[in-house]
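Review form for a predicted model. The reviewer records the input and the model, then writes brief findings.
Reviewer: anonymous (R2)
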Amino acid sequence: MKHWTLAAVAAASLAACQTPEQPVAYPETRFDSADVKSYFGVDVADPYGWLEDDRSEETGAWVKAQNEVTQDYLERITYRKALRDRLTELWNYEKRGAPFVEGDFQYFYRNDGLQSQSVLYRQSLLNGVAQGEPEMFLDPNTFSADGTSSLGGLSFSPDGSRAAYQISEGGSDWRSVVVIDAVTKQVIEDSLVDVKFSGLAWRGNEGFYYSSYDKPKAGSALSGMTDQHKLFFHKLGTEQSADALVFGGAATPRRYIGASVTEDGQFLVVTAAVSTTGNELYIQDLKNKGKLVRVVDGFSQEYNVVDAVDGALYVLTNHEAPNYRLMRLNGTQVSPNTWSEVIPEGAFPMSVSSGAGYLWVERMEHALSSVAQYRHDGTKVRDVKLPGVGTASGFGGRRGDEKLYFSFTNAITPSSIYALDPASGASEVFFAPKIDFDPAQYVSEQVFYTSKDGTKVPMTISYKKGLKRNGANPTILYGYGGFNVSLTPSFSTSYVVWMEQGGILAIPNIRGGGEYGEKWHVAGTQMQKQNVFDDFIAAAEYLFAEKYTASDYLALSGGSNGGLLVGAVMTQRPELAKVAFPAVGVLDMLRYHTFTAGAGWAYDYGTSEESEEMFRYLLGYSPVHNVKEGVCYPATMVTTADHDDRVVPAHSFKFAAELQAKQGCSNPTLIRIETNAGHGAGKPTAMVIEEAIDKFGFALWNMGFTKLPN
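Model under review:
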């Protein structure tokens, strides 16, 4: 660890540096007093509504000016280069994904360290054993000169002879699709366009199913509303215009439609939803040329087909089981009330995958993994011994696989890949990264704290050994709290640099997530959304009470729905933290549903149009609408990207404008707008590193560290 290098760089440049307290001259932002929206007879000012037009020249000029101010501020931070150099050095190690078999080859993803995108390699198989040196199969780094185009999905035909892959440009959710001969690697078709929120499900070798929306005809394609998903079948050798509509569109309007074909090729499985929670389930018997049959009505529960054996389908569902259970139905057997239970609901949430002829059941016990092996008749074979306490994932594969793979990680254990023998249950390390990090020098502990209403909430706290609980440790409190998403322990290369500097990383499992099943999720939705904010606030107060840190050394961080979390907490409790990082956040709660697929988030949020009660509740915490004149808000760096077509950048633009206009003290309120990037997926490595060191530098600088702590 080159701490002496960091300290030397900081000391050498300190004299030439401006102080953190130097005021920031923000660009002028036009205030439009005439822009007023009315809800249930209540007029709500939207003076920065013009920033919603993210393709206009005026907005473009504003973005450019804001970025110049932000970069000028960040360049004052004397140790930013030292942080960048250390993170770049640390990041430069080989990373691999778990291998998988398609046809006569074994494939795996590999990044040699600092490549913008991971590369897909393969080896030929002989008697199930990989042979010879790996050859490059697909290199996403060739998709664009600057590395900002990425691989958005890949699917092989059942015999492995064809492959279709999706390309995302600049981080957009809109994708194009290229089809290649998987043996010769020659392009067969180039390309389908306007594919969004879609997998690629092959029907034999003749073609595949995919989902898309009509491109918005008015306004920006990146922010225009996308409401009616459509499922198509594309037959190889035909034009996309001839693709058959299978489901969706005006006849059966659904916001989200997905398709898969069971491994045996017998069934087409279609899920259809109007929001991000709950789905209908449709089944088509392809072998017997049956019709697409709806086997589950309504959108109140989740249904996910995990396997099909001898005409029976195995479905993971929370129907009458908030922690999920596994059910079996025969073909197109309608109604879950007629299905049979295979694996019952337990005390903790359950997920299931299939591989090697078995079912692999993961139960999330207080946000930590336990895994068991089952037969399809529901009998348990064994518990899988894991390498430690943390997060295990994978275990899936084809029915004939003789070996399966899983990954294991926690906050201080870099993700390693293990090979599992399903016959014996024994596993061994298949790939372990060689990284300049010693887990023995760090601590990661789980604690439980009490929220405002008495609810017990778990939290993982990670830091370097020897840390003193003196209330003066720089701490990042990271949260999400929504959409049934669970924050299980995982290793982050970026946060190693933070912990090396004496920093603490604290991640609470707040309500709105799925850590304790659907009840935990629902407890943080709609009119109960305040529970999420209260849980996050209580986490900070626990850290204060236990002397891990204090408000002057605390940074709040979260992205997307977590960006909303940070925005709401910093406007409700501005004194709670010194620094705030609302990233790609949902920050205008009155208008979020009018952009892209935002209307589908109503299960979690409700909308300002559904009732006056819901409107007033949203208005009460909407970050954009709750910035008060003259209040001292934390030093804030809002982050977003110009190609974010999931949570459009207008949310962040408007929130930053409100903060800059109303900030009541000298704490900076900046916005960092990444260009040629989207919501987060597919960002090139250099961009990820730069954003991380900008956040760490900004946090430490505004906590008063004029040189690095260590």
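Findings: The mean pLDDT is 93.
Further findings: The longest helix spans residues 57-74.
Recommendation: see findings above.
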